[in-house]
């Protein structure tokens, strides 16, 4: 699926995820703890971890992963150049499909930084 409005996509996905979390609260709580622990700063900072997560999202072709991790990478101060390099690693690991999803990831990142190309 090609997402044209990443902000609206996250709003819609948040609503759907809220309903899912309500139906499986224990699983949702456990997943939240995994996410919090995995992304928290340690030997790698949170920005680097979000770039890794974005690259993985590209290789597994997960639109939700692109949206959430592009937004988080922007929040943690990732530059567009860092996003491009993460996309490059994903393409190396995932081939042609990752090239397509890399373009989607860049569009998602740009939507959360108002298209700042610098």
From TrEMBL:
Report the residue ranges that make up the Carboxymuconolactone decarboxylase-like domain in this protein.
25-107
Highest taxon in the source lineage: Bacteria
Name the Pfam families for this protein: CMD
UniProt-recorded Gene Ontology molecular function terms: peroxiredoxin activity
Q: Transmembrane stretches, by residue range?
A: none
Gene3D superfamilies xrefs = AhpD-like (1.20.1290.10)
- PANTHER family cross-referenced by the UniProt entry: ALKYL HYDROPEROXIDE REDUCTASE AHPD, BLR3452 PROTEIN
Q: Which NCBIfam families match?
A: ahpD_dom (TIGR00778)
The protein depicted here goes by the name Carboxymuconolactone decarboxylase family protein
- Please report the organism this UniProt entry assigns to the protein: Stappia taiwanensis
């Amino acid at each position: 699926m090609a997402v044209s409005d990443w902000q609206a996509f996250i709003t819609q996905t948040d609503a759907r995820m809220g309903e899912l979390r309500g139906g499986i609260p224990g699983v949702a709580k456990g997943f939240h703890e995994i996410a919090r622990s995995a992304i928290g700063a340690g030997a790698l900072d949170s920005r680097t971890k979000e770039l890794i997560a974005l690259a993985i999202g590209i290789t597994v072709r997960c639109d939700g992963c692109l949206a959430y991790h592009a937004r988080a990478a922007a929040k943690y101060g990732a530059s567009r150049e860092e996003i491009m390099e993460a996309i490059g690693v994903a393409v190396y690991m995932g081939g042609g499909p990752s090239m397509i999803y890399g373009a989607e990831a860049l569009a998602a990142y740009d939507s959360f930084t108002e298209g700042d190309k610098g």
